[in-house]
């Protein structure tokens, strides 16, 4: 579990193609300071398991499912990445609960820069828009952000200068992909409401309860 508060802007050192998988070597002196084999690090919002760590670098394997559902397959040596270690129990939750399980990739549609910050509009993949609400939480490339506006097919977030300076969103431009993870609480609510609705139906589809079908 993560918080969406990026700890370090790391860099891809190498990418090893393994057919339907890949092995990444990434540089992150801060996040590797206390991690060991088997620990979790979020890379652009994707939870990866540390294979080995040495000299401020770590390696992680990325399976086919992760490559197909995230933008990690587009990484190359020199690419900058957002890094965050798994949260410690009892630590401050400054962002929101982030699983590191990417729901899909969006595309930056527009970027408006000003002295006070930047507004970024992201086109959503099908099916994710229903989980977003204004002032709710969304994870973009591993960054916990607040939704400013959501309309059919896209949403907008506002970034302060600190976020721009310390994350990949400071450099990304329209047309580039970003990993998206919606608030898991929204998905739980959807599942619970769906189960309750199903429970209120009889086998023939009529509403259950006293006087049902009359």
UniProtKB/TrEMBL annotation:
Pathway: Cofactor biosynthesis; riboflavin biosynthesis; riboflavin from 2-hydroxy-3-oxobutyl phosphate and 5-amino-6-(D-ribitylamino)uracil: step 2/2. The keyword Repeat applies. Keywords: Repeat, Riboflavin biosynthesis, Transferase. CDD domains: Riboflavin_synthase_like. It holds the Pfam family Lum_binding. It catalyses: 2 6,7-dimethyl-8-(1-D-ribityl)lumazine + H(+) = 5-amino-6-(D-ribitylamino)uracil + riboflavin. SUPFAM superfamilies: Riboflavin synthase domain-like. Catalyzes the dismutation of two molecules of 6,7-dimethyl-8-ribityllumazine, resulting in the formation of riboflavin and 5-amino-6-(D-ribitylamino)uracil. This is Riboflavin synthase.
């Amino acid at each position: 579990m993560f918080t969406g508060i990026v700890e370090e802007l790391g860099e891809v050192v190498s990418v090893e193609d393994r057919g339907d998988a890949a092995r990444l070597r990434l540089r992150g002196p801060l996040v590797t300071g206390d991690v060991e084999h088997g620990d979790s690090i979020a890379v652009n919002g994707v939870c990866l398991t540390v294979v080995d760590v040495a000299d401020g670098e770590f390696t992680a394997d990325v399976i086919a499912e992760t490559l197909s559902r995230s933008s990690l397959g587009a990484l190359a040596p020199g690419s900058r990445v957002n890094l965050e270690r798994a949260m410690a129990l009892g630590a401050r939750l400054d962002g929101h609960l982030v699983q590191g399980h990417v729901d899909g990739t969006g595309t930056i549609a527009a970027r408006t820069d000003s002295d006070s910050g930047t507004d970024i509009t992201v086109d959503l993949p099908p099916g994710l828009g229903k989980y977003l609400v204004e002032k709710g939480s969304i994870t973009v490339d591993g960054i916990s952000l607040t939704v400013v506006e959501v309309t059919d097919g896209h949403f907008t977030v506002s970034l302060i200068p600190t976020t721009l300076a310390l994350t990949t969103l400071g450099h990304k431009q329209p047309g580039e992909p970003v990993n998206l993870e919606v608030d898991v609480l929204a998905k739980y609510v959807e599942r619970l409401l769906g189960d309750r609705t199903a429970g209120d139906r009889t086998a023939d589809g009529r509403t259950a309860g006293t006087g049902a079908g009359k």
